[in-house]
Specification:
By secondary structure, the chain is of the alpha/beta class. It is 41% helix and 17% strand. The protein has a single domain, classed as Rossmann fold, CATH 3.40.50.
Length: 300
């Protein structure tokens, strides 16, 4: 993929990140597209996006994050520019891919930043592999909601966009992410149009939307919030129309070592819509994790 370089481009803003690279690697049978930034010997920060999304969800955070971390944001299987082989597209399947992803980069542990579906995956993984997760940043995280109307709206708008990736249709889908339509970013619409126009995009989207099917979602709902031992920062947009703030409040109350930050004038993508405020909320938490890690007794 060629990065747009127009004035005001979110890709142009990302060039302040050190070591910026975009590439594809094979992970657990999936050709996985990765955006990398920061020194490779720095503490790892792995970013997981939401349903129907892609790694550009974090493009406006790379500069801030890469100052102290090795940042790896990747397209989930059947999402973005990653491939969509026959495999599980339920939470355990995504967790298996995440486990293999960490192995592929030689990372025994990492801090996970999970937005929407990515937060759901990160929480489940943190319970299953507590030794591999040093901290969690959960952004409009899914896993505890079952709203048929929201699920249907997400399914219908996503399928409409991939079946007819005209600018107006894709803009309607992207608008769900923000506090208001005026926030919709033209470059983001163009990026989505390119993804949705790829050969096989319709079949990939059907796989990506598996968890929006009621019977599949019901059996994947996450209930083990109290078993999460890693420190967690929750960041929510007050105007989130996909995963409401009440859901974030419930999750924050259930995770033992957690706190919630609410950003005004932000929807389901606060990290993109209000990047400065988001980064200002997250960077001190990441610094605390690093300080705690340095103070942790080492074997031997």
């Amino acid at each position: 993929m060629t990065a747009p370089t127009s004035r005001g481009s979110f890709w142009l803003s990302a060039t302040v990140a050190t070591g910026l690279a975009v590439f594809t690697i094979a992970v657990d049978g999936v050709d996985t597209r990765v955006i990398e930034a920061g020194p490779r010997d720095a503490p790892p920060l792995v970013c997981l996006h939401g349903t129907g999304g892609h790694a550009e969800a974090f493009i406006r955070n790379l500069g801030a994050f890469s100052a102290g971390h090795h940042v790896l944001a990747y397209d989930l299987p059947a999402h973005g520019w990653s491939s969509a082989p026959e495999r599980s597209y339920e939470i355990d399947g995504y967790g298996q891919h995440l486990d293999a992803f960490l192995d592929a980069f030689g990372l025994p542990e990492a801090t996970l930043v999970g937005q929407s579906l990515g937060g759901w995956i990160a929480c489940a993984y943190a319970v299953q592999h507590p030794d591999r997760v040093t901290g969690l940043v959960l952004v409009g995280a899914g896993g505890n909601t079952f709203d048929p109307a929201v699920m249907a709206r997400l399914r219908d708008s996503s399928m409409a966009a991939v079946e007819n990736p005209a600018a107006a249709v894709v803009r309607d889908r992207v608008a769900l992410l923000f506090a208001g339509p005026v926030r919709t970013d033209d470059e983001l619409v163009a990026c989505r149009r390119a993804i949705y126009s790829r050969p096989g995009a319709v079949g990939a989207m059907r796989k990506a939307l598996a968890l929006q099917t009621p019977e599949i979602r019901r059996r994947n709902l996450f209930t083990r919030w109290a078993d999460i031992g890693a420190p967690a920062l929750l960041v929510w947009g007050r105007q989130d129309r996909v995963t409401p703030l009440s859901s974030g409040e419930e999750i924050a109350a259930a995770i033992p070592a957690s706190r919630l930050v609410v950003l005004d004038e932000a929807g389901h993508w606060p990290q993109f819509e209000r990047p400065e405020a988001f980064n200002d909320a997250v960077l001190p938490f990441l610094a605390e994790l690093l300080a705690d890690d340095r103070a942790r007794p080492r074997a031997g």
